[in-house]
Input
Amino acid sequence: MKRSVSEPRYIEYEELFGSKDWRPDSLLLGNGFSIGANPNFGYGNLYEAVRSELTEPQLALFQNVGDFNFEQVLRSLDTTLATLECYKAKNTTQIFGDRDSIRLALINAVRSSHIADAAALSEVQKLKCAEFLKPYRRVFTTNYDFLLYWVLLFAKEQSRGTGLLHDGFFSKDPAGSFAALEPFDGIRYLRGALHLFVRGGFEFKRTYAPMNGSLLSQVETGMMNGEYPLFVSESTADKKRRHIRQSHYLEECYTNLHSCRGTMVVFGNRLADNDDHIRRAIARSSVTRLCVGLLGGEGSPDDVALRHSILEIQEHRWATNKPQIEFLFYDSSKADPWA
Output
């Protein structure tokens, strides 16, 4: 039986920065952040975007091997083909065809649901977003698009440093490897990102440079060469957590979420059941105040979903014997990062 939780208190977003004791330490972003920049980002799960293009055997492969995990499915096919080549097997046409069609379906889904390059964002949008991020020491995101990369690159070029430019990757053209051994302040992609990939057991980040082409074209070329994006797309929190444990980078991001303290702000994220591992991390952290952006008033879909998530976080918190979290709501429409 669930215990009762005190009603979230409503505040104005600006109130968070009026008191030194309240000043937020961390920010958690969700898909609402990306949709605010461009409706094209309302893509949800990439697997759902390509499902209609997959054959019955390909669908069975996802169910048996990876449950929406493109990287694991594609790597399993690469490994199968390499093994069959060693045995000089001849009947590999269907496996080659399935690998290539799944790869192409993913490329098409990414291309159709993502902004092609940074020029699609206006200078005003990038400037406003950089200012929105500036107060926070740590930014976590469940999005795997390029938006944060573009905004922070713009801020650096314009000498409008946000203090969040460090993402744990050390740039060496054409890619920087992840080498953060200790917790660091900055950006963390909790579900990975399309411009992150694994090569030889090490995690790398694709970086924009005119000579390299757009990030999207680099991702497409990388996939054709067997370098698949590092991103989490499983359907349940438990399966996502298992995927995270397999990556040094993703595990570090998740561990660092545990280390948050003080006030955390949530924007564009409902903390849904399929992200219960994130709710558990927040509950086990030293966060004392969770200020959640709400789109719509009482009884709205956001309100219903977030109240459910708050109950779940409190249930997890009770199990830790830590002081209960204070929950606050603010109107996310008045804290628009892009305008």
